[in-house]
């Protein structure tokens, strides 16, 4: 019997008829309407309520079991959780999807239309936030005791619209009409201090103690989102904190006549959880952001300690045995001095003992080597917002430099200034990366090549000091959302071929390799791909009004817009192809549709210019009768999880073309390959491991390697050499200065040409252009060989087992968390 079916039995063998009755009951008594009047939203709400009856039952069962067994748990601290929609996922994970589908069909409702009613929960920017979402899915599926901690943003990542080709940002109001998958827990509210000053005093024993007199207290209200594991046995929680004002009022300041001073410059309490910062891979360094970070870390630690004390009272000796905290990037690094503050100032513990607990508790995941993403806060800001934490950081730093660093490199001030948490200079800064490494038990990168670079280039001295601290955990994605739920037709074919246990054991898909050359299986597999492309064609028409042919190659690049990801390299090649077609309209070419999805950070000028340029080129190309529809370009607005779920099953080609050494791992590459897209990519991030797993003949690799990039930069890279050395590059770049794509407005696209030439082409697009163009020819040649292509696509699905987030979590468990699973009855 399959796991999913077992679950349906375990949760009461509900029939479609019973599910239908439950929906109708909720329509009536929970939402005050009936089957004749109900709006689409009401139907969705009622279905969610019917489903939640099972969710909440398993949630309390899970919490009860974890409490009774007093299990060690991991606490995943992340400023972002890019959850997407939950209805379909929860139905699938409970094994209720088919039941619900039948129930709704009897009510004359299409389940796919119904789930489209749900707004995405977009509490994240991109890969980092989506990784957190995949990880909590895996943790629950693997029956591991875990809590996700983050912020309950009122507005998630902005909604993107295009106006005349330009990106416009609109607020995201994901919970405007309520959200059935979250519960407020006012019984667990926390008070969080910020601002103010520190008083140095002597306690009764004559010891120097520090007392922080905060300038403001913020209330943290928890919202719990149930995280349903596949099979539905374990339901963990994602606990998100909403900020509220307290009745606290600073009478001291008020009485001394400083009413306005009491408010001035202070970030208002309720704005703290208002909005997610929309910067991906860049750091804004704003006061509100630091307060967001501290706010959710402080709430979460208090929550953890409250729970710990329920079982262990004031005995701290088991704390680090019970509590593991994973820091998703440096964003929650402030949790380290916060735990020190709690232990030293509040629990009166001595420093060494407190520091030992801290270091055993925390581990840190590094997500990027890009300098613009490495967080630093000015000492001045720290002093204002978190004065006591600054003192603690100084003390952590002093002890670290004077004992550990000096022991290894006696008297070496150069190394000390490099490893110091404080960066000296025009403005003194707190380096959150150094703090994270110093305060953690383990530090991991997110793909083999990235972890190697973390050791060799980012933190070489730390690695020399503590070799065992650094490790790798290659990222993964959950096959439940990214194959089973998003590609039901392919999932059913797989079930028929290798059985239906693969969602919890992706290695089973390996057996599909036996069918890779089987003509019947190839046809079934490629027919499904075609149907998925037909479905996407309709979405494209709705969103862009462009008609595309589903028999063309669907070539997809979906990810945040960033120079290092090189959407503009893709654009250069599209323009070159267009130019070749104009010069030779009868050129033999398999029709291709280039499909983009990407949001640019609102303040990232060049990224927005690239979006505009792609849209303008698309306009021209799509309406040019001379090229006979061989080339189409579409940019789908508002890329997000639910749109990814519609695009990925329809992809033939996956564009993973970052400059080698810049993409830490990538996870979009994994989702696309799993669904049978062939990767054209550089040897960067997890692409390297994907190529190893699926075989060199089933991907197209191009471009400079990490070492070649380093060598070229060292030798002195000059983009003008490529401009003058390659006639096609020159012609395409010069095109940007004309009004060919922006009639009557020459120069509108010039910033892109400038970035390649005067701007120095920092991401080496011109250096990689020729190799990329050759790679694209190889893609076309492969596609013409229908059988060869089908074989490669099938083998991609078959050999992606490693990139399952369950495997990532198992690596974290083995190498970092030392966690045991816990069966919930
Ligand atoms: C997977 C995913 C990403 C990450 O994509 P990369 O190609 O790895 O950068 C970003 N946004 C969304 C919505 C995703 O689903």
TrEMBL record:
InterPro entries from the UniProt entry: Glycg_phsphrylas (IPR011833), Glyco_trans_35 (IPR000811), Pyridoxal_P_attach_site (IPR035090)
SUPFAM superfamilies, A to Z: UDP-Glycosyltransferase/glycogen phosphorylase
UniProt keyword annotations, A-Z: Carbohydrate metabolism, Glycosyltransferase, Pyridoxal phosphate, Transferase
Gene3D superfamilies to which the protein is assigned, alphabetical: Glycogen Phosphorylase B
Leading EC class: transferase
Cofactors (names): pyridoxal 5'-phosphate
EC number: 2.4.1.1
Pfam families hit by this protein: Phosphorylase
Record's catalysed reaction(s): [(1->4)-alpha-D-glucosyl](n) + phosphate = [(1->4)-alpha-D-glucosyl](n-1) + alpha-D-glucose 1-phosphate
Gene Ontology molecular function: 1,4-alpha-oligoglucan phosphorylase activity
Family: Belongs to the glycogen phosphorylase family.
Function: Allosteric enzyme that catalyzes the rate-limiting step in glycogen catabolism, the phosphorolytic cleavage of glycogen to produce glucose-1-phosphate, and plays a central role in maintaining cellular and organismal glucose homeostasis.
The protein, known as: Alpha-1,4 glucan phosphorylase
Top-level taxonomy: Bacteria, Pseudomonadati, Pseudomonadota, Gammaproteobacteria, Alteromonadales
């Amino acid at each position: 019997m399959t796991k999913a079916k077992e679950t349906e039995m375990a949760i009461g063998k509900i029939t479609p008829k019973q599910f239908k009755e439950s929906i109708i009951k909720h329509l009536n008594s929970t939402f005050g309407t009936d089957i004749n009047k109900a709006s689409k939203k009401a139907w969705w709400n009622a279905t969610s309520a019917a489903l939640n009856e099972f969710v909440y039952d398993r949630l309390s069962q899970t919490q009860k079991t974890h409490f009774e067994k007093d299990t060690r748990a991991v606490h995943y601290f992340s400023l972002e959780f890019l959850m997407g929609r939950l209805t379909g996922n929860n139905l699938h994970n409970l094994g209720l999807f088919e039941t619900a589908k039948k129930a709704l069909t009897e009510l004359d409702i299409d389940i796919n239309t119904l789930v489209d009613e749900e707004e995405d929960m977009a509490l994240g920017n991109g890969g980092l936030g989506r990784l957190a979402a995949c990880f909590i899915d895996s943790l629950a599926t693997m029956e591991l005791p875990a809590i996700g901690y983050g912020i309950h943003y009122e507005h998630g990542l902005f909604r993107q619209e295009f106006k005349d080709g330009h990106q416009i940002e609109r607020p995201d109001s994901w919970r405007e009409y309520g959200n059935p998958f979250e519960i407020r827990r006012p019984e667990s509210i926390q008070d969080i201090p910020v601002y103010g000053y520190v008083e140095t005093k002597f306690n009764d024993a004559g010891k120097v103690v520090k007392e922080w007199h905060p300038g403001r207290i913020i209330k943290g209200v928890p919202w719990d989102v149930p995280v349903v594991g596949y099979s539905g046995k374990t339901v963990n929680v994602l606990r998100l904190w909403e900020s509220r004002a307290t009745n606290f009022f600073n009478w001291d300041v008020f009485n001394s006549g400083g009413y306005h001073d009491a408010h001035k410059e202070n970030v208002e309490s309720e704005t703290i959880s208002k909005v997610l910062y929309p910067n991906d891979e860049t750091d804004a360094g704003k006061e509100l952001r630091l307060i967001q970070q501290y706010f959710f870390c402080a709430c979460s630690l208090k929550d953890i300690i409250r729970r710990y004390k329920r079982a262990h009272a004031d005995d701290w000796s088991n704390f680090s045995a019970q509590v593991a905290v994973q820091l998703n990037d440096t964003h929650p690094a402030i949790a380290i001095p916060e735990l020190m503050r709690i232990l030293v100032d509040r629990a009166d513990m001595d420093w060494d003992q407190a520091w030992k607990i801290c270091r055993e508790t925390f581990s840190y995941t590094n997500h990027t080597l890009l300098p613009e993403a490495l967080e630093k806060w000015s000492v001045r800001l720290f002093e204002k917002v978190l004065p006591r934490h600054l003192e603690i950081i100084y003390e952590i730093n002093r002890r670290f430099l004077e004992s550990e660093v000096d022991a290894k490199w006696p008297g070496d001030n150069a190394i000390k200034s490099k490893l110091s948490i404080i960066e000296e200079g025009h403005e003194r800064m707190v380096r959150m990366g150094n703090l994270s490494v110093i305060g953690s038990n383990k530090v991991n990168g997110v793909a083999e090549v990235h972890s190697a670079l973390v050791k060799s280039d980012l933190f070489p001295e730390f690695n020399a000091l503590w070799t065992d601290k650094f490790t790798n955990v290659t990222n993964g994605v959950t096959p439940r959302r990214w194959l089973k739920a998003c590609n039901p037709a392919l999932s059913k074919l797989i079930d028929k071929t290798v059985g239906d246990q693969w969602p919890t054991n992706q290695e089973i898909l390996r057996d599909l390799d036996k069918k890779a050359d089987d003509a019947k299986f190839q046809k079934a597999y490629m027919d499904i791909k075609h149907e998925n492309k037909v479905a996407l064609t309709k979405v494209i028409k709705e969103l862009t009004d462009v008609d595309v042919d589903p028999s063309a190659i669907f070539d997809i690049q979906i990810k945040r817009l960033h120079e290092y990801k090189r959407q503009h390299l893709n654009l250069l090649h599209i323009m070159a192809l267009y130019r070749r077609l104009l010069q030779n309209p009868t050129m033999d070419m398999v029709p291709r549709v280039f499909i983009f999805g990407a949001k640019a950070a609102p303040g990232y000028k060049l990224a927005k210019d690239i979006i505009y340029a792609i849209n303008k080129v698309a306009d021209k190309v799509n309406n040019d009768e001379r090229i006979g529809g061989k080339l189409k370009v579409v940019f789908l607005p508002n890329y997000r999880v639910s749109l990814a779920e519609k695009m990925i099953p329809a992809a033939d080609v996956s564009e993973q073309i970052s400059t080698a050494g810049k993409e830490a791992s990538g996870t979009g590459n994994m989702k696309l390959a799993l669904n049978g897209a062939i990767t054209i990519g550089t040897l960067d991030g997890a692409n390297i491991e994907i190529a190893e797993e699926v075989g060199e003949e089933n991907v197209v690799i191009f471009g400079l390697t990490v070492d070649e990039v380093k060598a070229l930069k060292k030798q002195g890279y000059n983009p003008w050499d490529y401009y003058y050395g390659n006639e096609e590059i020159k012609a395409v770049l010069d095109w940007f200065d004309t009004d060919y794509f922006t009639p009557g407005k020459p120069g509108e696209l010039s910033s892109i040409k400038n970035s390649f030439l005067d701007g120095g082409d920092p991401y080496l697009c011109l250096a990689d252009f020729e190799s990329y163009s050759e790679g694209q020819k190889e893609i076309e040649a492969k596609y013409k060989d229908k059988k060869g292509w089908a074989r490669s696509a099938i083998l991609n699905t078959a050999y992606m087992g490693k990139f399952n987030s369950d495997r990532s979590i198992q690596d974290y468990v083995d190498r970092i968390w030392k966690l045991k699973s816990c069966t919930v009855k």
